[in-house]
Amino acid sequence: MSQTSTAESLPALIAQRAASAPAKTILRRKARGIWQATTWAQLAESVQQIAAGLSGLDLGRKDTVAIISETRPEAVWCDLAVQTCGAASVAIHTDTDAARLCHILRSTGCRVAFVEGEEQLDKLLGVRADCPALLRIVIFDMKGLRDFTDPQCISLANFQAHGDRNFDWSGAAARVPADATAVILFPKGDTAPAGQAMTQRDLLQMIAEARTRLRMTARDERLAVLSMADPVERIWGLYAALDSGCISNYLESPDTAAENLQELRPTVFGADAEAWGHLHATASRAAKGATFAQRRLYDWAIRTARLGGIGSLARLTVLDSVRRELGLNKVRLVYTSAEQVSPPTLDWARCLGITIQPVGGAPVAGSQPDRQYGAVMQRAHA
Questions:
Q1: Per-domain residue ranges for the chain?
Q2: How confident is the prediction along the chain (382 residues), in pLDDT tens digits per residue?
Q3: Nearest-CA neighbor of 332 among 239, 220, 210?
Q4: Residues 24, 218: Cα–Cα separation, whole Å
Q5: What is the reported pTM?
Q6: How far apart are CA 374 and CA 332, in angstroms?
Q7: 10-198 in CATH: which number?
């Protein structure tokens, strides 16, 4: 798949990819122990159905839609559908407290909110009286809500089924202007009164930078473990993968991240400091629980690698096995937020032959969008 595009917006880029390779897998999700594939054509259909529902609410440019969910395919569909309508998408961390949630919804004039399930719905219902612009709440997972009724709330399945039947998704995607606000970023922990708005032009510039720096390809697979609300996952993960054709794989639940990593063995892995610290701790615990000879061998291999003398013997006897046990034996591209991973963990990863690349922490080309994005990333991970 070509990595060049004449698209002037992310929705137009997605439409081009869906038209050129409709049968190719672009997403996978693990459900009930089975990896379920989504092709470009199926992705386009889901995005079209949600965009049709939004169009039926007369949503368009200068409108805002919130997504309060863990990282999952439904959040991806909604994010792309919102942008297809020319509106701005606001992904909100699921652990955002009620007061901050209310502020974000009010300050952006949010008209629709997509929520993952009962927990996020309860939080939203607690503040909706103070969010007068909010018209509709759409729920992904109705577990525990079988008897729940509210005229403002609807399941995602029903929302998709009752959209504007005349909605032209590909035409709408082609008409999204480059200067339309695409996303408004409210990084985790940032208490600034206003979010950082990025236009479609800004997003395409960031995607182009990711294309150059990360060099994902259609042969790659990545495991999505970061929050959808994290700019690194959103832009350097999801959007860059959609541009390149890299398959994005979604966890069955956050609790299965280590298990899914071992099973999938991705070639691309973007994770935060906590995830890398966990992997380091897992390897250290395993080494401590090994036999005396195995501990000595592990320590020898790490020392050899640290001194720059890593050779075939150290790799074959120890370090390749460690990578394989963790699910990192195929990984070729590893990235994280800037200046997040601790020095001991960075050192350990380097000994395994893994270079953790910081992304998004500083502007590259020096343009205004670069400076804006750099500021966002610095606030996100301060």
A1: 10-198, 271-359
A2: 345 567 899 999 999 999 999 999 999 999 888 999 999 999 999 999 999 999 999 998 889 999 999 999 999 999 999 999 999 999 999 999 999 999 999 999 999 999 999 999 999 999 999 999 999 999 999 999 989 999 999 999 999 998 888 889 999 999 999 999 999 998 776 666 778 899 999 999 999 999 998 999 999 999 999 999 998 999 999 999 999 999 999 998 888 899 999 999 999 999 999 999 999 999 999 988 988 888 888 888 888 888 775 556 666 678 888 999 999 999 999 998 766 789 999 999 988 989 998 886 433 444 454 555 555 444 444 4
A3: 220
A4: 10
A5: 0.90
A6: 25
A7: 3.40.50.12780
